[in-house]
Write a sequence for this structure.
């Protein structure tokens, strides 16, 4: 029985067939549900060091009275600062309510009915999701050796392809295209569509062969770069990310963006976060030593691992990932199950601080030993 018989007719098929994403419950609820007193969140690739000192101080100095005033509608000061940092113009940047929101801006700006986007089958899923629930085709090119398949993606481009999304480094595999591969790809695309490189984990990368994508924008006006303050800069809770591109392209995308979606605190935090020089180095050190520890522990358990750049590691379990998730939750450790990401029975673990990683290793090894007793 429905109280709204006309509803069916109103809903497009591509919305009807789309399954809603269920976010995790808040910590207090999860602790009650699983009976744990502590909870380590290793599921979202957050920075356990939190925001940089400079951002903390700026947030603390925020005058609550300012909450009644609308934020800068175009993140005026932040865009100027980004322009200085990257040697680009402020109008080459567009901020959003997290990088997630700018994915929607870009798709809305370029896709009309019958168009498609191209990405990988096993990557950050939001590109595919936004395309599908907006009624556009998402062409998924299988990863090769856990990395984006540059020639394979070129082959799938047709005249209805408007955007290609490359997650670099890739979440969840950590694979990445170097400068040569990205240039090769951009040359083959030859301006036929927009190429988005999502660099959510860029700040974690130290390898000098990683592309300088911001500099490439000058030569490739169809290149769009995504960045976020959620990962390295520890501001995930405030929701702010941005895209960068040529002025022509950003001027088009800006038409589809809802002004005021980035709140004042997020702008203050992001602006000040960029001033901290030590935070990035400290985080990189912590990730590097934590990753070493995690890989060693997983190796001792005999589990295959996939990892590369970024603050996360994947591993394949000999048991169901959702069962392992529930068992680990009772021990206060939350990981990301990967079956939904087309990696059946893999989990992704955020490289957090040592205490959390020790709790994870202890919980997982106990669970695996229990499993062997049957
Ligand atoms: C976390 C993440 C994002 C989303 O970042 P927000 O700014 O928090 O919306 C985008 N892309 C990738 C690959 C991510 O891992």
């Amino acid at each position: 029985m429905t109280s709204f018989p006309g509803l069916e007719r109103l809903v497009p098929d591509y919305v009807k067939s789309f399954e809603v994403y269920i976010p995790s419950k808040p910590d207090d609820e999860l602790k009650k549900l699983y009976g744990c007193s502590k909870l380590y969140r290793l599921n979202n690739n957050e920075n356990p060091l939190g925001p940089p000192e400079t951002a903390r101080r700026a947030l603390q100095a925020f005058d609550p009275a300012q909450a009644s005033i609308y934020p800068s509608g175009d993140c005026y000061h932040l865009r100027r600062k980004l322009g200085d940092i990257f040697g680009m113009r402020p109008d080459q940047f567009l901020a959003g309510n997290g990088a997630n929101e700018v994915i929607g801006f870009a798709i809305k700006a370029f896709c009309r009915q019958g168009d498609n986007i191209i990405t990988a089958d096993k990557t950050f899923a939001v590109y595919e999701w936004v395309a599908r629930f907006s009624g556009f085709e998402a062409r998924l090119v299988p990863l090769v050796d856990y990395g984006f398949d540059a020639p394979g993606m070129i082959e799938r481009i047709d005249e209805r392809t408007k955007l290609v999304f490359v997650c670099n480094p890739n979440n969840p595999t950590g694979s990445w295209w170097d400068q040569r591969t990205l240039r090769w790809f951009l040359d083959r695309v030859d301006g036929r569509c927009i190429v988005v490189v999502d660099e959510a984990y860029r700040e974690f990368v130290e390898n000098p062969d990683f592309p300088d994508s911001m500099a490439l924008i000058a030569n490739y006006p169809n290149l769009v770069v995504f960045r976020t303050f959620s990962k390295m800069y520890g501001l995930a809770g405030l929701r702010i990310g941005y895209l960068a591109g040529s002025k022509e392209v950003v001027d088009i995308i800006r038409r589809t963006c809802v002004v005021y979606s980035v709140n004042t605190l997020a702008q203050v935090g992001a602006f000040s976060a960029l001033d901290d020089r030590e935070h990035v180095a400290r985080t990189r050190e912590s990730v590097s030593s934590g990753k070493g520890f995690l890989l060693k522990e997983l190796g001792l358990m005999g589990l295959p691992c996939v990892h590369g750049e970024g603050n996360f590691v994947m591993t394949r379990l000999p048991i169901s990932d959702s069962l392992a998730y529930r068992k680990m939750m009772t021990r206060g450790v939350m990981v990301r199950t990967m079956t939904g990401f087309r990696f059946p029975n893999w989990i992704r673990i955020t490289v957090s601080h040592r205490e959390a990683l020790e709790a994870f290793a202890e919980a997982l090894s106990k669970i695996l030993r229990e499993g062997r007793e049957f």
About this structure: Residues 45, 98-100, 124, 167, 171, 198, 200, 228, 230-231, 236, 241 surround pyridoxal-5'-phosphate (CB under 6 Å).
